[in-house]
């Protein structure tokens, strides 16, 4: 099990706000709550779950969404730490399914912040009247497949038992936060919390002594945002991360009007690119252009908004050690130019991996934060943390006193949220056991031996490596089409074959051999020092590295071949009642 979310406020953080709770309980449809069987149950009311229930409701499929949170939004409901914002262009993060929605919503910033993102998701849910299909404050503890009935049976923490023909796991990729395992965490007398659990009512920072552990994408946002608001900030860095400027800016009415007029073009560009962004790779060969031309490209990209510096770069950056090293050195020089103290600058430059082989955080004045007198960097590679004390932290070098400790220590990524539910398939096989050495799936959306279970953004799909909403729309549409097909053809059981799953997993594994990412210690390869079994070098093949267009064509091909690779079982009696269903392929 991951380290418990353990000490003092960590356990107490985010008790549901009473008003929020009352309003959600009132809003929750009593009919919905008293029903015990649905055709489809969706677990998770985040970006994927919201779109999934919209699709199901539009088709008149009897479905509900369950979420343990007091309200919808998933990632954007929970992560309320200062500085939390998109690093995808806002207008590429919105849903694309409704022209009306695209035309109505005004993104205020190129990279929109958490409160606005949550407001957007609420707007979508209200506009399409989706709340009536959602149930909150209910955590699914177990999901067991009943072979005799070809149904899933779900156990909830509020004591309810629900059943459904199909279950859709829209659990999110980064929804299982992990704390470090440090002696004494429960003894700290100040406030401490994981960034995921940043108190919703906000935290008084003025004059406070704050310690933060971690320098991933989350910490990089927090540090830059709070450096000038706290009394004193000490950053405990185990390994630095490569990072480049976000270059955020407001979006005026005129700019938004222009974006609206170009949505078709923008979304088509996203559909063309490997990462689902507007940023297209530079198709020139790294070695075909001169060094001056390479520098010219990098100078331009460094000043441009968003992930261009990563994704509009030469393709060799991802695959060729020498090309990657040359570019990494370019970014290292940029860091040296921004950080006044050369010794601190060197500590902020990664030495164990090249740029872009881990997920690149984008920053706003992050490096400049270290030029402030009240911001201190502690290299815990050199002087490790030994314990949390009542008043702060002790490293092998010295004691630090804090009012607040922030754990920006990441997530049990991609599979963590699955492991936290007791999922059992055919013959009681436990999913956590099947996946203990890494996930294996068919298309990242189904699992052999776990029939009627769908994952619109599962492990081994392209969604983790794609601008998330672009990826989840693909996944949700594919899953919905299968559900529609099942309804039309009286399919009561859909289970990918073992061979199909093995072939897909082998393909996903093989793709890692082409990318430098395979060598990185990051969540893309399943590394997490806080989760037993995930802390050492054995990579877990979690993501599809072939790019979104190839992924889409592969999953569409399965459909074109009549769901090849999936064993489909029909309810023959039902089919006899309406012969059109008989046209389905049945396994
Ligand atoms: P992360 O990238 O996994 O970073 C966790 C950090 O905590 C790392 O610096 C890690 O050090 C450190 N750490 C973990 N356990 C530790 C321990 N026991 N002792 C000391 N240090 C420890 O997690 P994250 O920053 O939350 O980001 C996760 C992902 O969320 C991102 O990659 C991104 O995909 C997403 N995200 C997106 C946005 C956005 O869209 N704008 C913003 C934030 C996050 P090591 O590197 O040494 O392991």
Keywords:
20 strands, 587 residues, alpha/beta, 15% strand
Query: Radius of gyration from the CA trace?
Result: 24 Å
DSSP helical segment count: 22
Uncertain runs are: 1-8, 11-28
**Main pleated-sheet profile:** 8 strands, mixed
**N- to C-terminal separation?**
38 Å
Helix content estimate: 25-40%
Task: Tell me the overall shape.
Answer: globular
Question: Which molecules are bound besides the chains?
Answer: NADP nicotinamide-adenine-dinucleotide phosphate
How confident is the prediction overall: mean pLDDT?
Answer: 93
Helix- and strand-based class?
alpha/beta
Itemize the secondary structure elements and their pairings:
Blueprint lengths: L7 H5 L5 H10 L2 H5 L2 E7 L3 H12 L4 E4 L8 H4 L11 H4 L5 H6 L9 H14 L6 E2 L4 E7 L4 E6 L4 E9 L21 E4 L14 E5 L3 H10 L5 E6 L6 E2 L7 H9 L1 H10 L18 H13 L4 H4 L9 H18 L3 H7 L13 E2 L2 H4 L5 E5 L5 E4 L3 E4 L3 E3 L2 E4 L8 H4 L2 E3 L6 H4 L18 E2 L13 H21 L2 E6 L1 H15 L35 H13 L5 E5 L1 H6 L10
Parallel strand pairs: 1-2, 1-6, 2-3, 4-17, 6-18, 7-16, 8-9, 8-16, 9-12, 10-11
Antiparallel strand pairs: 4-5, 5-6, 13-14, 14-15, 19-20
NADP nicotinamide-adenine-dinucleotide phosphate (NAP) binds next to helix 9.
In short:
This protein has 587 residues and is α/β, with parallel strands linked by helices. Helix content is 34%, strand content 15%.
Overall description:
The protein is of the alpha/beta class. 34% of the residues lie in helices and 15% in strands. It contains 22 helices and 20 strands. The strands form five sheets. Strands 1, 2, 3, 4, 5, 6, 17 and 18 form an eight-stranded mixed beta sheet that branches. Strands 7-16-8-9-12 form a five-stranded parallel beta sheet. A three-stranded antiparallel beta sheet has the order 13-14-15, with no helix packed on it. The longest helix has 21 residues. The structure holds NADP nicotinamide-adenine-dinucleotide phosphate. NADP nicotinamide-adenine-dinucleotide phosphate binds next to α9. NADP nicotinamide-adenine-dinucleotide phosphate (NAP) binds next to α9.
